[in-house]
Amino acid sequence: MSTNNSPQRTVDTGNHAVERINESDDEISPFFAREQKEADDDRTGNRGGTTPPENAEGVALIESLMNNAPVGFVFFDSNLRYRVVNSYLAEMNGIPALEHIGRTVEEIVPTLAPQARRAFREVMETQKPVLDREFSGETPKQPGQLRYWKESWYPVKGPGGSFIGVGAVVVEISEQKQMQEALHDLTGRLLVLQDEARRQLARDLHEHLAQDVTALGLNLDMIKESIGRVGEHEYEAVARCLEIAEQCVSKIRTFSYTLHPPHLDERGLATALQTYVDGFQSRSKIAVALDFRDEIGRLPVNIETTLFRVVQEALTNIYHHAGSSTASIHVRRDSAGVEMIISDSGKGMSEAAAATAVIDSPTNVGVGLPSIRERVRQVGGRMKLSSGPNGTTLEIVIPSPHPS
To answer: In sequence order, which residues have a C-beta less than 8 Å from that of residue 402 and are 6 or more positions away?
Structure first.
């Protein structure tokens, strides 16, 4: 790009603005050069008929594409100054297109400037596009209101192949983000309601149904003793009923515990997990190593519930899908928060399954990994998943609500 000091000025083509390019600059794109010439001809009244009709048609088509596109288009020079702005972008910013020209991002949308400079620098250094990057900030059109955009930045080269600036395509996604946040909030409330329902059902099962079946078992035991060996057939029938009643009590207590362990409320996460893991090992025959690195103490109720549900979901996944005979759970707490790492030695997951599990979408919520992801997100944590032929590792990090 030429570095001479020929004067520059701005022209307004009606629906978008273009900065006047140095006439000696032979690296500017034909489109911009043609626009400037037409603007000069309009000013001087000299249309001259020098532009071939086919070129004029091409320029008109490009102009129409820019002016009617439902996205923002912008072209920056090498100093990140606006050179071309279409009307859609100008409308998004709330500043006329002509007032953008020659000014920097800091002067037009200061809250977006750091993000813009990072994208600009990346394109300049790599000469490759930066695609679908999310930007957020305020604009003069709606001061004080956080808005969101998806932007793709790309290098622009002149006819000789040299770099002349950076172009960007801008799509506002504020409405989609608001809908996504609303769905996340709804999902969070549903999870809370689900946990409360589980807690109540577990309490009812333990305090009422389990006790009733226990009483039934005691009565059957007395009947069995009174029958003695007088009636062999009756004795065996009552003995069988007693055995069924004992199995029912055991299953009700297990079901009650998996719905919501009383130890979680009474003694905290460490005791609740140890009891759950002991029961899981007995039922599944999978050896689980539970390791608490130092004393973790009590955590906020929502975090303890989240981590307990994470272990439940993860161990259930291992039992049904991993084909692993072992698993390990490591829990560590420090001033920054809590880290939990759950691993197995199974067959691993496909790339597609692993990618789907970590997509942050409110529609991707259900049992298993998507449920874990959403629960962790609700308490401000993050989830990392790695999987291969030698097993899967799930890492959960939840920041402390009161960091020291």
So the answer is: none
- Looking at the structure, do residues 280 and 404 belong to the same domain, yes or no? yes
Task: Compute the distance between CA of residue 251 and CA of residue 230 in angstroms, rounded to an integer.
Answer: 32
Q: 7 by DSSP, 3-state: which?
A: coil
Residue where a domain stops, chosen among 148, 172, 196: 172
Q: What is the pLDDT of residues 371-393, one digit of tens each?
A: 888 889 888 999 999 988 889 99
Distance CA 186, CA 232 (A): 60
Q: Which helix (H) or strand (E) holds 33?
A: helix 30-44
The most confident of the ranges 53-57, 234-238, 271-275 is 271-275
Torsion over CA of 54, 56, 60 and 62, rounded to 10 degrees?
70
- The sign of the CA dihedral 379, 381, 382, 385 is negative
Residues 6+ apart with CB under 8 A from 390: 345, 348
The amino acid present at 104, given as its one-letter code, is T
User: The domain that contains 352 carries what CATH number?
Assistant: 3.30.565.10
Of 107-116, 135-144, 234-243, where does mean pLDDT reach its minimum?
A: 234-243
Q: Which domain holds residue 200?
A: 174-260
Token couple for 139: 């604009």
Q: Are 242 and 224 in contact (CB under 8 A)?
A: yes
- Asked if 149 and 135 touch (Cβ cutoff 8 Å), the reply is yes
CATH classification of the domain holding 24: 3.30.450.20
Same domain, 77 and 191: no
User: Do 126 and 37 have their domain in common?
Assistant: yes
Q: Which residue has the tokens 């140890």?
A: 274
DSSP assignment string, 186-226: HHHHHHHHHHHHHHHHHHHIIIIIHHHHHHHHHHHHHHHHH
What amino acid occupies position 138? E
For residue 157, is it within any domain?
A: yes
Nearest to 168 by CA among 95, 111, 60, 83: 83
Q: Is-contact 259 202, C-beta < 8 A?
A: yes
Looking at the fold, whether 388 and 307 belong to one and the same domain comes out as yes
- Asked if residue 273 and residue 247 are part of one domain, the reply reads no
Q: Are residue 198 and residue 315 in the same domain, yes or no?
A: no
CA-closest candidate to residue 149, choices 92, 206, 224: 92
Residue 401 lies in a domain: yes
- Could you say which of 172, 203, 219 is where a domain stops? 172
Predicted TM-score (pTM) above 0.85: no
369, 313 in Cβ contact below 8 A? Answer: yes
